[in-house]
Amino acid sequence: QVQLVESGGGLVQAGGSLRLSCAASGRTFSSYIMGWFRQAPGKEREFVAAISWSGAPTRYANSVKGRFTISRDNAKNTVYLQMNSLKPEDTAVYYCAADLHGGVWSDLNNYDYWGQGTQVTVSS
What is the pLDDT of residue 110? Predict the structure, then answer.
């Protein structure tokens, strides 16, 4: 069983920054592919970023490329999402997820465990 707990969400003005964290349980965290997804009101959950077990490679949605950075610290069982130059359209609940078996990183159906989500609101 893997438990994921996100933190770091909040309210920020457009152009600002936030760093999300996701703390994971489990002795084999370093072997998981970790992803971040988001879901805005009335919309489907969408892929944001993912990172391999070793920290490279990484993948990003086109909408966040160049603004967001995913990273991980396997010693702390934690994955991060640094979000810069935030836009109102980034407003959503952000979820981290763990993929224990591999697959298409951007496909939410490949992920085995999910956190409860953290709200990010960007005001204009």
Answer: 94
CA angle 30, 66, 84 (to 5 degrees): 85
Cβ neighbours around 121 below 10 Å, total: 15
Of 31, 41, 58, 51, residue with least CA distance to 117: 41
Q: What is the pLDDT of residue 1?
A: 84
Ordered DSSP codes for 61-88: -TTTTTTEEEEEETTTTEEEEEE-S--G
Q: What's residue 102's pLDDT?
A: 83
CA distances from 62 to 48, 72, 96 (A): 9, 21, 18
- Burial string for 14-46 (b: 16+ CB within 10 Å, else e) reads eeeebebbbbbebeebeebbbbbbbeeeeeebe
How far CA 59 is from CA of 12, 16, 35, 119, in Å, comes to 25, 22, 9, 22
The CA distance from 49 to 124, in Å, is 24
